[in-house]
Batch of 2 targets.
Target 1
Amino acid sequence: MVGSSASPVAAQGPVVSLRQVTKRFPGVVANDHVTIDLWPGEVHVLLGENGAGKSTLVGMLSGLQKPDEGEILIDGSAIDIASPRQALDLGIGTVFQHSMLVPSLTLVDNFTLGGPWWKRPDREGVAARMREQASSIGIRIDPYALAGSLSLGEQQQVEIVRALMRGSRCLILDEATAMLTPRDAEQLGELMRRLVARGLAVVFITHKLNEALAYGDRISVLRLGKNAGAMEPQVLKSADTSAAMAEVVRMMFGTNAFGEAESGAREMRAVGGRPVLAVDGLAVDDGSVPLSGISFTVAAGEILGLAGIDGNGQKQLAEALAGQRPIRSGSLKLKGVSLEKAGVGERRSHGLRYVTDDRLGEGTVGTFPVSTNLLLKQIGDRPFWKSGVEQPAAIADNARRYVGEFDVRTPSIETPVAKLSGGNIQKVLLARELSGAAEAVIFAKPTYGLDVQNIRSSRRRIREAAEAGRAVLLISTDLEEILELADRIAVMSQGRIVGTVDNDADARRKIGELMSGMTV
Amino acid sequence: MGLFTEAFLTSLVLGAVVAGIPLLLAGLGEQLSEKAGVLNIGLEGMMLIGAYMGFLIAYVSGSTTLGFAFGALGGMAVAAIMALLCVRLGLNQIVIGIALTLGAEGITALLHNIQFSRTYPRLDAMDTLPIPLLSGIPVIGPAVFDRPVIVYIAILLVFVMIYVFRATHLGSALQAAGDKPAALDAAGVDVICTRTVAVLCTGLFAGLGGAFMSIVGAGVFVPFMTHGNGFIGIVLAMLARGKPLWVLGGALLFGACLSMTTALQVAGVDIPTDVIQMLPFAMVMLVLILAGRRASLPLALGSSYVRGAR
């Protein structure tokens, strides 16, 4: 299907071309002389780490931003795309990662947005055309459903239908699969194949390599805002998957980043010292997932992995342990000291640390500078504050030390933390929580939403924390991560720990059984 | 049961209508701009300017129609400042709204003091337009269907708004401007322009409401005469969740509270007026406690729209 549909139309030349396009934002060059061609009948995958400049590129194609240098060619002639409207008129349709449908309007009202104000929208006519267009690409939509009542995957399908109804010849899917369930992502992949079979040019932006290789005809890689390499359709088709993946990884990171993962596979370590963190019979009230009978211990230098499908009480447990949620009954001991009634600050001063997965929500204050965020849980403490007065020199010294030690890539220590990428915000959090007299550290989904390189460095930090003799509780929904790092693995289901196994060769099977409700 | 005489009921319903119409106009106006994502705290100021302009022109020209027209224009003039500062320049809507209200209070009090503080002119009562048949109904008839034309226009506006919200492109555009302005922009509709229109209409409605207070309600202009009506209008719009009919119901309810004073005096009940004047505001708090939790506001309410901003 790919070959037969791609070759005849591709002969026409690219629909859209970017020539030496540069876009600068204060402090960063988001796109640096990027050149990319979008051909009809092809899924063109745009790959890159977080912050590689993919979103900026989409912004320029969809008329939200204008390039500072270079030009955009449509059917071979240079055109200035001044507004989203003009981009649509030129046949460039964009489906953004976050839905662009108005949730409080029905689908048909969303589609008729933009008509003359005094007129009645032609709801019946548009609804009929919507159904027709949807069925022509093999999906079903209800034009009178409220947009907000649809799943994200369904909303994206609707937006694709809308782009087609507006006569788009070039369809941009910006991180379209990032927030979809695996099933929805697969459906989107199939839909992309059907669209290119009709001669459309599809741009698929992602940072998931397997999706890129599964659905793409052509791959372009961006790195730090520059073209870092590309794979032509004929190369991509002839290469086998693992070779293609290795090549793409090399383009994205400059090194074979996955090599480290294999060498980093965990050998069994002898840990079994005194328990540092001991939880016994813990029960926590919660509207959706109450916890009961949670008992475990973590020894010094040990990593206890907490596996389970998301939403089975992991978040509640992490918050209860950190002191952000009241404990109804049971005990929590850190080095023999009972902490179940202690507040967040007291638990921290005893050496209990919590690296949250909600990095910008509860982990940091986005508008505060990096330096203050590094001390967020010590505000008012000496030597950074004396009698309530800030000591800028001490705060700056502290910040410079941790920015260096944890390799936080930030323009300055005064930069608001929300301006950093997800990976660097995580480094700020790690620096804060792993510093000082940490005894036990709880990691909640520590690599969620990070790119490959930051995943590697975060995992290395977790391992180092354990090697430094700290008790580590690693809560993750990524089983590979737990199998790579943990010494023992507890499985959580519906607010309980349903079993604990050693991380040996047979661990994967046993965890699978525990998750699915069988007993070991 | 001596309280519920026909005279008492008529004066209560009449009071509810006379006090409720300004609230209705203010509430409808606020609903419009809130739908489009602009929280219009300056409503009180727009009403006050409307009241002053309406009275001034009606007094000078002798035409109440001209009075209402200029009252509406006065409200729109204040709204234009709001649109310029908040919608176009993206300044904080709450701060600007408060400034506009305070500014309007000051300037109308000053002008009134210069022009009318010695003469205290009054307008004659406005002619009413009895509606045949309906005006013959006891209690409701004289209170509702034997009123000046502007009352019917205000009530008609409720249904105009229902039509606009449900059945026109403008209705969808307003909803989108308040809930997801980026989607509206992507659909090729100018968000700034949509919101500007909404804010100007708010000014028009609020100005009419203010002019109603001075021309029909009181017959005079007194400094600070809108005393809180604009703010009750904001509450009404918030509780009505985008439904114009709810604004009407709420306006009549609050209007009834406001008119209790006169109605109870007619009935000969002796309660200190200070206590009765608290009623509408106590009612606001009561209603907010009971229904405020479920009030849903547009997602982008209060935030200015900048294309491509993240």
Target 2
Amino acid sequence: MKAKIEKKNKKIPIKLIKSSKKTSGIKKKTKKAAKKVTKKVTKKVAKKNTIKAVTTTKVIQAANVKTTKNTTKTKTKSVKKGMIFNYAPAPESTKVEIQSKYNLYIGGEFVSPRTKKYIPCVNPANQKEISQIAVAGKEDVNIAVENARSAYENTWSKLTGTERAKYLFRIARIIQERSRELAVLETLDSGKPIKESRDVDMPLVAQHFFYYAGWADKLDYLIPGQEVESIGVCAQIIPWNFPLMMAAWKIAPALAAGNTVVLKPAEQTSLTALRLAEIFSEAKLPPGVVNIITGEGETGAHLAEHHDVNKIAFTGSTDIGKLILRNVSNTGKKLTMELGGKSAHLIFADAAIDSAIEGVINGIFFNQGHVCCAGSRLLVEESIKDVVIKKLKRRINQIRIGDPLDKNTDLGAINSKEQLEKIKMLVELGKKEGGEFWEREGSVPKTGNFFNPIIFWDQSGSCTLSKTEVFGPVLSIMTFRTTEEAIQKANDTNYGLAAGIWSEKGSKIHHVAAKLKAGVIWANTYNKFDAASPFGGFKESGFGREGGRMGMFPYVEVK
Amino acid sequence: MNIEVLKTVKMFVGGEFIRSESGRTYSFCPFNNIEYARVCGATRKDFRNAVDKAKGGFKNWSSRTAYNRSQILYRVAEMTQGRYLDLVDNFVEVLGMPEEAAKEEIQKAIDTMVWYAGLCDKYTQVLGAVNPVNSNYHNFSTPEPMGIIAYIENENFSFVRLIDHIFSLLCTGNSVIALLNKENPIMTTILGEIFATSDVPAGTINLLSGDLEELAETIGSHMEVQGIYFQSERKDLLAKIKLLGVENMKRINNITSKTTQDINRVINFVEVKTVWHPIGI
Amino acid sequence: MQVTVSKGVGEKTTIPYSPIDMMATNERASSFTKRSIKKASKVQAINTAIEMIDLTTLEGMDTPGKVKQLCGKARNVVSPETQKQFMDHPQYTPVPQVACICVYPNMVPYAKEALAGTNINIASVATAFPSGLSPMEIKIKDVKSAIKYGANEIDMVIDRGAFLEGKFQKVFDEIVKIKEACEDKAHLKVILETGELRSFDKVRLASWLAMEAGADFIKTSTGKVQPAATMPVTLVMLQAISDYYEYSGKKIGMKPAGGIRNSKQAIHYLCMVNETLGPDWLTPDLFRFGASSLLNDLLKQLFKEYTGRYYYEDLFSLD
């Protein structure tokens, strides 16, 4: 046998072969491989059997032929091992200056807090302190609101729409110019990969200011037949998952409508908002139009409950949202709430599978899964469950986890130690509730808050992971058989923020999209955002929209 | 001696005229303490039953085409016009309204019905949008009905306001449970009869009469009720309802406006859904 | 669309319905262009890319002289003398040879002569390249003569007209026949000319059809039609190869051709292969670049990594 192969080699001068020294070894290998393949194919065929008995035998034959062919081929081929392609570290090199501590931005200036208290900001990727932020107390909140009130009465509401627009355009431009610096700072402070802060967050921040700038002098066209006016002082409280993007989503429409703002960023991630404050000063935005006060939950509560605040816009967890609502529901303040979700991601058997897999990856691993609209419940048509899970596993193994500042990092650090503990706790709970799970192969950095992606399947709809928002890289997979069942399962939640549909059948997409109780439906895509596109939820995911024309409604009142 | 047959004004729920499950009624004496009729007093259970019916009603009503809803609401206007004299009599007799005022009020209400009937197949165009996103996606936002909305009527009865508010909810596809006050509960029957004969699917509109104080807790805490349009003067009860409504994030609105036929009212009880789809070959 | 073709008497194969979403594919492909390959991994990637090049000249004005010079460059990409200055670099390895020379059939004898004694392969475009619109017997003769003259790789084109007309059986049969004509003497690369198929769905279908018919490699383009190779279309083909491997156990090679001109692009392609098919495919046995000007840019970047200098083109031969 060996001689025969060598002969063949001599005869056929296929120069692909670098050397055929190892032929015997190869022979064994290929034989094994061939066996495996036949097994595999037979297995597959056996499954298909139930459907098409007649053609199956042919398939087997074909497969057998193929395998033997394959064997002969590899005999003559060299086996040049593929390159193990490790990407060397590629850290983003932009240097960002960070002060050792930051004060409150009130009335166009940075002022030290009356509380004299500061709390540390930590880089979640290495748990090192990078700066300190001030804690605003009740008195500081009062001063901030007074400044916002005075700016509203005396300056901002007196400007023409065009003047307001010009300020917003100017801010947008400066953001674009300083976007790399902002991206690096965002990544340092929040743990999100630089790839995302650079390519997703910052462009959207700038776009929001650009988009809403143009509304400032077109309020007459906002609601047909209605004359609208600004509301007054807006209290805006934002979360830690998209720190600067959330600030932009809140501030831009508020200012365009003619309101003034007191913004409280999350205590975990306040640095970019404070950098935005510098940009406001650079753009010569009149003092007091935007005030940025930092601090913990208590600061937020003081702000929300302040008697002179006309409107509260909150993005965060449903629990805190409800808490705020209970405290202020009878104050006459206007409210918008953008809260949690447990969004369903549907894959039908007629979907573009590889594209759908990308959608799922983007849906649950974008920003470490710290996304209110994360597609955390994957609903797969039963007939394609196995192939989806197989492809998903393979794809998840390609995810690169590590230093968020490395340009090749796909999944960064979990935002905080507390969040990491919460994710771990929920996952442990999930593991106890039955079904199957699989964790990404390969390790994650030991220092810093890292978490290895995990997927669960064969769990019931009543399990923790199918009901509770995890806010991390944890995916729960369920199956459905019919379109009606898919819709029913997708809507089986108290949330209603977003949903995804993968199908190449247009009519089905429209049918399902119409029936899903969610504010944003991504059909054949997922986790797409745009300043022109309204975002916000049904049911307990909150009310009001951000983005687009509808994003202006919460910031105006009909005269 | 001529003994008058006293009628009991029934409630309209799930397309049927019902009494309170408790059998409870109270005396309705619009004038001079003379009992004009007996009126049903809806209980918490009646409200819960109405929610069940409204659920079915929503499913049916919201899945109708906008054109169909438009025709049905116009049919309501037609039927009301047919009952015009009946209604005038009723307003004069029961409420003691001057005839001219009654006529004006009723005609205005009918006009309002027509206005909203014509809005059914326009509100998505007026309020919706195709959004020019910065990537190759078709992106559109359309308002859609929320679900079951409880409407709490004001103590000072106004037929025009009642119609305006109920129709602003119905035209988008919401189903409504309206709680009418004691002032003119007879509307539950007359309006019910009009709706019942206008092809409005059962459960779409439900009319209860009862005591808000008693029902507030159930209305505020019921998880299937998506929104509350509150027009009563009882601010204390509004506060209670708002607090209870937090649990399922009810959309609660108590804005009063003097104008009728107002697109702004529609905005308060719709949800905007945005759909993305890639553009490609 | 699901397509069934006959594989001979009583034997049929069904090509599964596998729609492709264009935007998702574009976005995924563009994600590889965000990969930042630096230092050691860059040197490694460049050396591998050089080994994967099918150094190509397919001009009407090709002459034996031109082909001989190109072959000279293939054997001796950079002269040992020039390479001396880089030897001190810890990562230095001698610049590898390219995988293959790719020429028109008439040029094969000259290539064979010029490459004697090396293990550089000779690929010839055949089957009435680039249109493929000649009678079958001529295409077969084209292939056989190229092999006779010394080609051991055949880059055939599919009949795009037939494909777009829905005559999938014809396309399939032609590949089968060309494969037969190659016997065991030559490796078959099937050019889909994706720039003419246009939609990714069709590229996917054509890829599967070619693999089922016996292609050893599938290749994007002739280089004569724009667009030639793009990252998204290559991704679609890589995904088809991946699925085909799952289905048959057979590893099919991939060759993007045309339009890959610089190192950055080439490295992004390698990242895409790495993250779609895995390291098994990162070998000239299963991945090739059809290119000509790419080589000099790879060298420029390689030497830059060694010395930190950007070299002028004059250091490299322009062949």
